[in-house]
Write a structure and sequence with these properties.
Rossmann fold, 2 domains, 6-stranded mixed β-sheet, 4-stranded antiparallel β-sheet, 14 helices, binds adenosine-5'-triphosphate, transport, ATP hydrolysis activity, ATP binding
Length: about 350
């Protein structure tokens, strides 16, 4: 299957003679050392990854780690210094200006932190904007926009102007606008960072729902680990422009690649993220095999009730094969560990 997005050895270096660094020993310098020596700043450093069709791929890192630069490189809003990017099999790196325009209009939509809504247009016309740019007749685009307005829960606000809406609702308009053109892929650049925690949670749930309903490929940028763990099928962690780790939420929490990631995940409630894969063990001699069966992908917290209710250990299943067992004590070990300072 063709990857929805394939990025290979991507670099972005800002500054004088930035194209003369890659392939020289200077490329191996830390960001700070390269800056001191040459005046260049590494935005994205030799990044390679693939995103599968329909996947939610989260890019996470602290401020300055290169997230915004990376997401802008994907559609060449910023020109790469080197490397290749391919979107649904189309080589973005060698695409002409006309091809790029087409990709940005029809294949990929972006949702930004600062909404980017047109203040003098009503909600319905903000949502329809991308369709208007594509030359779709007014009646048709309004009909499509009305459908999407309903989809994101903005019924009744079609004729409102952006400044009459709360931040969360404005971001729903941003989402609707991104969805109106029926793109293959959505790129989210920290879309919920400016929202209050409760609204933010609603919007995260909204993204999960829309993903379930529409199945679009999503690349989601955030500096918030909890958001990354909640939304991501996989998470890529960046530091100083380079990849530190790529993994599923449970992999990142159970096996952090280094102290940087370990520090990030130290506060995460493990029982909410780890799956039975990480806590199961071999059955002990004589142990009853009459316990309930649960898939190996079950989140530990969701297995707790079954473990407490059963005298025999839970049988952990990978398809039809039993791959281990888990009892109440194994689960309590994970849960109690987090309550200890
Ligand atoms: N146009 C530019 N010129 C020079 N340096 C830049 C430019 N854009 C970004 N940088 C530098 O590249 C690095 C990565 O920045 P980027 O904005 O991608 O990080 P980020 O992870 O998105 O951070 P934030 O969450 O604060 O936006 C930073 O050191 C930044 O200063």
């Amino acid at each position: 299957m063709t990857a929805a997005l394939s990025v290979d050895s991507l670099w972005k270096i800002f500054g004088p003679r930035s194209d003369k660094i890659i392939g020289t020993p200077d490329a191996a310098l830390s960001r700070a050392d390269l800056k001191a020596k040459t005046g260049n700043v590494v935005g994205v450093k030799d990044v390679s990854f693939e995103v599968a069709p329909g996947e939610v791929f989260v890019v996470m890192g602290l401020s300055g780690s290169g997230k915004s630069t990376l997401v802008r490189l994907l559609t060449r809003l910023i020109e790469p210094t080197s490397g290749t990017i391919s979107l649904n099999g189309v080589d973005i790196t060698s695409a002409s200006a006309a091809q790029l325009r087409d990709v940005r209009r029809t294949q990929v939509s972006m949702v930004f932190q600062h909404f980017g809504l047109l203040p003098h247009r009503q909600v319905i016309d903000n949502v329809a904007y991308g369709l208007e740019v594509r030359g779709i007749p007014k009646k048709e685009r309004r009909a499509k926009a009305a459908e999407i307005v309903d989809l994101v829960g903005l019924q009744g606000y079609e004729m409102s102007y952006p400044d009459q809406l709360s931040g969360g609702m404005q971001q729903r308009v941003g989402l609707a606008r991104a969805l109106a053109g029926d793109p293959e892929m959505l790129l989210f650049d920290e879309p919920f960072s400016a929202l209050d925690p409760l609204i933010r949670r609603d919007m995260q749930n909204e993204v999960i729902r829309l993903h379930r309903e529409l199945g679009k490929t999503m690349v989601f940028i955030t500096h918030d680990l909890a958001e990354a763990l909640k939304l991501g099928d996989r998470i890529m962690i960046l530091r100083d422009g380079a990849i530190v780790q790529i993994g599923t939420p449970d992999e990142v929490v159970a096996q952090p690649a280094d102290d940087y990631v370990k520090d990030f995940v130290s506060e995460v409630p493990k029982a909410h993220v780890l799956t039975l894969k990480w806590v199961m063990r071999e059955p002990r001699p004589g142990e009853s095999m009459d316990g309930p069966a649960l898939p190996v992908t079950t989140i530990v917290r969701h297995a707790a009730r079954a473990a407490i209710a059963s005298d025999a250990p839970i049988r952990v299943m990978d398809g039809d094969t039993m791959v281990g067992v888990v009892d109440e004590e194994d689960i309590m070990r994970v849960v109690v560990a987090e309550e200890e300072p």
